[in-house]
């Protein structure tokens, strides 16, 4: 029977040391990608109300299949997809905690999150996705239009953001590292 998801762990995974910083850097991934490319863009795939994915319901402390606002984007560096990102938040908290969320369009979520000192990020969790994982399959569908075929395993990280002014606010951001991210080099001026 296919797995719904690979297990998420809080320890840093055993990944090539040269690639590890893409998973573990606690700064803004958006800013880091901008520093590693001449042209950074966000390509929104979807933004809608949808049932909470089964693999994410426990992590965000929501009952199975309860509806959430979800956003899926590809982050591109110089026209090449390097990250697939999936974000969910409870419907009732969008207007109160994350009013900017519905208006992002093709703008990076990270800019809004890191610009607000009242928003804090919890620890990262990591996983290695395989072809049997629902998130892997969703990622493959998102990059297929770019002619990409994923390797058998890819790394992902996720974390929950909280707004300090509101009890129980939460937004979970999952970032899947695509193979091209490991080829990026920091741009020099």
Automatic annotation (TrEMBL):
Gene3D superfamilies assigned to the protein according to its UniProt record, in alphabetical order: Chorismate lyase-like
Enzyme class of the recorded protein, top EC level: lyase
EC number in record: 4.1.3.40
Catalytic reaction equation(s): chorismate = 4-hydroxybenzoate + pyruvate
Subcellular location: Cytoplasm
GO cellular component term of the entry, any: cytosol
Pfam families, per the entry: Chor_lyase
Molecular function terms from GO: chorismate lyase activity
Positions contributing to substrate binding: 71, 109, 175
Family (UniProt): Belongs to the UbiC family.
Name of the featured protein: Probable chorismate pyruvate-lyase
Protein source organism: Formosimonas limnophila
């Amino acid at each position: 029977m296919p797995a719904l998801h690979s297990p998420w762990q809080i320890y840093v995974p055993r990944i090539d040391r040269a690639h590890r910083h893409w998973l573990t850097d606690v700064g803004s991934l958006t800013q880091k990608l901008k520093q590693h490319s001449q042209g950074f863009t966000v390509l929104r795939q979807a933004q809608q109300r949808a049932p909470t994915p089964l693999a994410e319901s426990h992590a965000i402390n929501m009952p199975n299949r309860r509806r959430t606002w979800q956003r899926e984007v590809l982050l591109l560096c110089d026209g090449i997809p390097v990250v697939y990102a999936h974000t969910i938040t409870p419907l009732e908290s969008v207007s109160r905690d994350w009013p900017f969320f519905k208006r992002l369009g093709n703008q990076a979520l990270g800019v809004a999150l890191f610009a607000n000192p009242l928003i804090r990020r919890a620890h990262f969790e990591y996983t290695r996705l395989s072809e049997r994982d629902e998130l892997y399959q969703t990622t493959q569908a998102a990059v297929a239009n770019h002619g990409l075929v994923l390797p058998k395993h890819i790394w992902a990280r996720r974390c929950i953001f909280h707004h300090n002014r509101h009890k129980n606010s939460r937004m979970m951001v999952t970032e899947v590292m695509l193979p091209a991210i490991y080829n990026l080099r920091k741009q020099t001026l």
